[in-house]
Amino acid sequence: MKAIIFDLDETLIDRTSTARKFLGDQYDRLADRLNCQKDDFIETVIKHQKNGYADKLVAYEQSCTDLKESIAHDLHLDFRMRYGADAISFPGTLSTLEELSDNYTLAIITNGRSSGQNSKIDSTGIRRFFSAIKISEEEGIKKPNEEIYIRCLSDLGLSSADCLFIGDNPLVDVIPPKKLGMKAVWVRSIHNDEPKEADAIVDSVVDLPNLLKRMNRAQPDGGHNSGSSAASLVKP
Question: Which residues pair with 186 in a beta bridge?
Fold first, then answer.
């Protein structure tokens, strides 16, 4: 194994905590134009964002309808201008990336807007660890389109057999990488069912260094044989 490719949101970045912090700050900035309570505002928008997969303007429109507010477009504009500037990474992310970068080339493939995703990467201080970063808006394609993974491999100068992909959404972070010949590690998520296709399952990226050590010990050539048993690597 020569490289690890990461998903961003809910893998490295705690999207829920980041969203809650942003929405709390947004409420404070625009409180004079809102009639609802702060907690109601945060929880309603979180609900309609559907773990980040809903259209953000639609989520604000639905939230404002529920809350009987009328500034959805202004809220959305504020979101586009500011979101990600105070992103929160999961505990242990920086130290884990530091450790992994000593032995592996690291990359990111993420769906989302260029400004928002770049803001998250910069505000959490993780950009320095990555040799390639692919953001769907910049590429004009998004996961699970195979081309975005192929472009990342090309940037790294590596074959799919040399790479492991890790992320929380099986439909874009496990199944497509596996089809291309990568190893795939699923980060447990309450929002997704456990994928049978995953080579391994972890609770957090902080589990990855020890998992990789086990994977390398299980392969007689030190981790370059793509035929090792996945079952022995799955964390209960």
Answer: 167, 201
Distance CA 175, CA 163 (A): 14
Average pLDDT, the chain: 92
Cα atoms found within 13 Å of the Cα of residue 151, Cβ hemisphere only: 19
Q: Residue 220 contacts by C-beta under 8 Å, 6 or more apart in sequence?
A: none
Which pTM does this prediction carry? Answer: 0.89
Cα separation, 166 vs 4, in Å, equals: 7
- Report residue 10 as tokens: 């809910």
DSSP 95-127: HHHHHHHTTSEEEEEE-S-HHHHHHHHHHTT-G
C-alpha 154/C-alpha 184 separation (Å) is: 18
Residue 110 neighbours by CB under 8 Å, 6+ apart: 7, 8, 9, 117, 133, 134, 135, 136
10 Å CB burial of residue 193 (0-12, 13-18, 19+) is: exposed
DSSP state of 44: H
Distance, CA of 121 to CA of 119 (rounded, Å): 5
Q: Quote the pLDDT of residue 220.
A: 61
